[in-house]
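Mods, move this if it's the wrong board.
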Amino acid sequence: MTTKYYAKRLKDLYNLKDEVENVVDMDYIQKSVFLSDIEWDILCIYDELEKLKTKKKRMETLIVFSMAIIAVLAVLILIIKLIK
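Not the wrong board. Structure tokens:
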């Protein structure tokens, strides 16, 4: 899943939450259960977004580390060529 998907899902859940809060013909218990389910879904999405951010940071770190290794190898190749 992508952050764009999660952003749309969050928007839909917040809209649904607003609609449920404004419903008049629903009893208090039913409304409370429904709202708590929506809020749970929202929390789960925020958790997934946090996981995506962490994964993205790890990937960025890996890319930077890989570029550093390539740079070191390039310098070593140049040194070897200069020695010969």
